[in-house]
Amino acid sequence: MSIADTGAGREIAARVERFVREVVAPYERDSRRDHHGCPTGDLVAELREHARAAGVLTPHILADGSHLSHRDTALVLTATGLSPLGPLACNTAAPDEGNMYLLGKVGSPDIQRRFLAPLLEGRVSSAFFMTEPAAEGGAGSDPMMMQTTCRRDGDHWVIDGRKAFITGAQAAGIGIVMAKAEAGACMFLVDLPNPAIRVDRVPRTIDTSMPGGHCEVTISGLRVPASQMLGEPGEGFKYAQVRLAPARLTHCMRWLGACRRANEIATDYANRRQAFGKVIIDHEGIGFMLAANLIDLKQAELMIDWCADVLDGGTAGISESSMTKVAVSEALMRIADRCVQIMGGTGVTEDTIVEQVFREIRAFRIYDGATEVHLWSLAKKIRRDWKEARQ
């Protein structure tokens, strides 16, 4: 099933799907994992060499640097998501994919040459330093609580603060750091590693698809050349919105692919496994769960298509991406949970990717804005629109 009837997206997505199913999926049992269970750098590098040879590395960005439409991107990123390793192999994983989009939209020619080009080539990874430790009252769902500061010192800016849940910071070669100045929030591009950015710990988390985990870091006296500020001082939150709506949507795309694959595995199991005198799909309790999965998969697909269409129309799509993130993440959670349930004991083992997909989707309901934060934001908009309609 395709999300959008567009030729470029369909052709690229078909090549990506073949690659992920035939080349990437066999690596799912590869033992190269760190102590948190995340893929190691050498495993990712090997997969990317395969993707480069197959012509499917960074497939959502064309040779001239232009992006596919959001609707075409949906087709391609859903295909990369058919394996938890697919986005890493094809260089469409978070946070790199969102960072590439942001730098392509906002970065100066020099920043694009120095920082965007290596990302597009899949030679380095990146990290986005925005979230801060909740125990210290830092920014999370409310970015206005940001405590990390930056101050001008001649031709440099000096940054100090603490960050938390910074995905992949340990292995990243590029960082985008958010901090607040008197003028407001600012963003900076930083070469990593840097002695002024110290990884304090990497907590064990429920998800294991992102190399390096989600780090807690201290930034102490980080000096960044003024030329490495992204855009203008005080515009950081505006640039975050440029990244945010598409990034929410691309998360939905990738995890839709993962749940399609999990549902395929559960369907195959249900058609083979015998219990009480017949294959278990013929028991209504199992058959109905698979039927419900088809409905949730289609609804998720349609929500992604609708939001992509809004973004392709040139509007910000903040409310639309909030609605889509809520609807899709909750639907995918239902699908993943049913797949585990259908497969019984096998579903909670590492014998298939179903168990991992369940864990990853559970985390997805929180990152890029928890469901409840998006619902609260939408409720505020409903109230605001009601008031404006009566003025």
Automatic annotation (TrEMBL):
Residues 128-205 form the Acyl-CoA oxidase/dehydrogenase middle domain. Its cofactor is FAD. It comes from Massilia cavernae. Residues 10-122 form the Acyl-CoA dehydrogenase/oxidase N-terminal domain. GO terms for molecular function: acyl-CoA dehydrogenase activity; flavin adenine dinucleotide binding. GO terms for cellular component: cytoplasm. GO terms for biological process: fatty acid beta-oxidation using acyl-CoA dehydrogenase. PANTHER family: ACYL-COA DEHYDROGENASE FAMILY MEMBER 11, MEDIUM-CHAIN SPECIFIC ACYL-COA DEHYDROGENASE, MITOCHONDRIAL-RELATED. Belongs to the acyl-CoA dehydrogenase family. Residues 234-381 form the Acyl-CoA dehydrogenase/oxidase C-terminal domain. This is Acyl-CoA dehydrogenase. Homodimer. Keywords: FAD, Flavoprotein, Oxidoreductase.
